[in-house]
Amino acid sequence: MTPVLRAQRLGKRYRRRWALSECTLDVPAGHVVGLVGPNGAGKSTLLNLATGMLTPTEGTIEVCGGPAGGSTQQLAKVGFVAQDTPVLAGLTVAEHLKLGAKLNPGWDDALARRRIEQLGLDPAQRAGKLSGGQRAQLALTLGIAKRPELLILDEPTAALDPLARREFNQALMEIVSEEGVSVILSSHHVADLERVCDYLIVLVSSQVRVSGEVDDLLAHHHRLVGPRRDVTTLPGDQLVVSESHTDRQTMLIVRTEAPILDPAWRVESVSLEDLVLAYMSLPAGAVPGPRPTLERVR
Amino acid sequence: MIEFYLNPGSGLSPYQQLVRQVRHALRLGLLQVGDQLPKVKDVATELAINPNTVLKAYRELEHTGLAAARPGVGTFVTGTLPGVAPLALGRLRRQLLGWVADAQRAGLDEESIEALVIATLRSAATEEIA
Amino acid sequence: MIWLTWRQFRVQAAAACALLAVVAATLLIAGPPLTGSQARLAEAANVVYLGGIVAVYVLPAVIGAFWGAPLVARELEAGTVRLVWNQSVTRSRWLDAKMGLTGLAAVLTTAVLTMAVTLWSDPIDAATRPNTIHAVSDEGSAPEVFAARITPWLFGARGIVPIGHALFAFVLGVAIGILLRRTVPAMAVTLAVFAVVQIATPALVRPYLIPAVRETVTITGSSIDRLGPDDDGVLELGVAGPRGAWILDNRTTVDAAGKEVTAPDWVMDCVPVPTTKPTPQAEVTTAQCFARLSDLGYRQRLTYQPADRFWTLQWRETGLFLLLSALLSALCFRWTKRRLP
How far apart are CA C161 and CA C284, in angstroms? Predict the structure, then answer.
């Protein structure tokens, strides 16, 4: 199956600052991919490169088998809900649907109307008067009714209250179950991502720290607690993601596919949040172990 | 029909929680053979979780013979979990009470007892695998 | 795409129609100026005459600032480009529709306004043409002198040049909007740049669109147009050019050798002080005086664009602005594709 996103040594520079560098990714289709990382890590840059809003400074990016952005054909394959979910304030909800119908050859008007009805939106309402949650839902409707192969969402719930956020995630999951569309979603809400995503990419300081299927990531990361010891004495296949020491105790989060046999360790599972935070607090450039194995967990 | 919920503090992944809730419902008789489990789409929408998670839970239930999927219709309960006989339950409880008293005499407080039980359960499970 | 552009533009289009309706109504109510043997403009008609000129000058600037600058800048500012650019429509197609439709509206609005104003003012403009002999009014007062339509003040408010200006201002606004990405600064910069262009064109460009006619004429008492010391106290002498022409220079005096010189100071006394009533004797003196000047070899150099070049100049300047607009549009497309967002 064609990967929905394939990046090779992808980099984007604004003037002198690299917003993204050496990004190599291969995301298979059929997943809901969570993209996490601190602010300014390059999440939006990566997503904007994928939609063709930006052009790469170096490297290549392919989306659904074609070079990102540019042609009408490629644009039709990707739905994008941009950050802050922009809508045209002067147009009504119904006019947004008309816009979608006029500008997209594959527009599914029945789907769009059904969703608007479900949401209880008044078609005659001006988009500028909608609440944040309603606006996000309208943007999502525009993104999905063009029937894309991949739906990209850039922090769609960042500005929403908990209830609206929940409703948005519900709508998104309904769409995923019904349409089987692949999704890439960036967010700061790791708890949401834990529910919604089955694939995760952690992006820190413009570099991919880890990526892979959530189940694999959780199965291969462990928290080890035991008497104090030097991490260099660990077996070679155990990559230390985070470490903290007291006089007597050492606590590690390690990554390994092999079982941990050393009886000195108390081995505990890690939550997705622990895992994300561990990778996010890794100092820049201090990616443990050989990079290629870390970037592609299969 | 049962309704699922997720408890973020449980320490279990969402799919494990779904499996556990079905098993629990079977034990309590809330679900019986022939009952339909909620549709994947409905669970995913209601809980705002990935449909693959629901699928995975249902597949696990199928694997253990508790449920079966009828393509295009849904997933149905096909097995039961034996409830524990009340007699045996009473006997086990009495034995445990004696053990608890023993442990308290040995100076273990409630927390220590809990830790010991969990550790023992875990090592028993490991031995079983080995 | 055209539907969306029209939907976003319809309020402005309505405003343009309203403006044109108001102008048309005003001109109709004012009625044709200079009817019958009238040689002076009524006060109301004068207001309409001047107002028409100002309107035609201001419209391109308004189009540039209010239609051009916000066209892309507002969408960039509000982030709505990210919505539209992610429909299955390329950015070029998007900009095509937006600039095409709005640009066409700019051209049409300006064309209609200019035509209306030009038609209404035609009797007044005609009074300045060289071959028009105008009746002296009943009261015996001299006919009012109007600016010729080829002179800078009127040239930009007549004919087809305003259309070129409007299209240029519009594209300029779009380009500055794309570069600045902010609506209000883009509007301000557009206004400033366009004002500079409006001022620079008649001074630095228009006179050279066709090489001007250069003549050396004899200075006579009747052709004298200005005589007196300038601000620095140096004698300044000017002669009148052909009627209806755009005089570029009439103040250069040359001697027999063709060198630029200042006329001798005694010429000042050739013309009697204007307060005294001209007497036959004074006229004789004046004629003798200028004959002496002529005998000494002094001539006046006259540089001008004759009245009959009006349309040639109009076409050339319009063509120039259309060319500039095309170049700027090409840049807009390039920037939209490569530099945004």
Answer: 47
